C-alpha cells in the first residue's frame, strides 16, 4: 500500500479523529476546519468517479458529469484495478445502506 509510507502516529491520529465522528453533520464541521474546499471537492470527485467506473460508465460520460480530468479518471481506474480495494469496500458499504 502506498499509504504505508505515511503510516505513523500523525496519520493514526487523523484516522482516529475521522472514526470518532458520529454523523454527517459532524463530518461537515470537521472537514470544514481541516481541509480546503478544493481538497474536499477533489476527494468527493474521486469517489464519484470510482462509483461511475464500477457502474460501467465511459470516460467521456464520467468526464462530462464529474468534470474530472481523464488523468484523474485513469488514476482512479488504476486504484480500482490494482489498489488496496478501498474504493470497492466503501462503495459496497454505501450500496448496502441504500
UniProtKB/TrEMBL annotation:
It holds the Pfam family Trp_repressor. PANTHER family: LMO1763 PROTEIN, TRPR-LIKE PROTEIN YERC_YECD. This is YerC/YecD family TrpR-related protein. The lineage of its organism: Bacteria, Bacillati, Bacillota, Bacilli, Bacillales.
Amino acid at each position: 500500500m502506498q499509504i504505508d509510507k505515511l503510516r505513523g502516529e500523525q496519520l493514526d491520529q487523523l484516522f482516529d479523529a475521522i472514526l470518532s465522528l458520529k454523523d454527517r453533520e459532524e463530518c461537515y464541521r470537521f472537514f470544514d476546519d481541516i481541509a480546503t474546499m478544493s481538497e474536499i471537492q477533489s476527494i468527493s470527485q474521486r469517489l464519484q468517479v470510482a462509483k461511475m467506473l464500477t457502474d460501467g460508465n465511459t470516460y467521456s460520460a464520467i468526464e462530462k458529469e464529474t468534470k474530472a480530468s481523464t488523468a484523474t479518471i485513469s488514476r482512479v481506474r488504476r486504484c480500482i484495478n490494482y489498489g488496496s480495494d478501498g474504493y470497492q469496500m466503501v462503495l459496497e458499504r454505501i450500496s448496502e445502506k441504500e
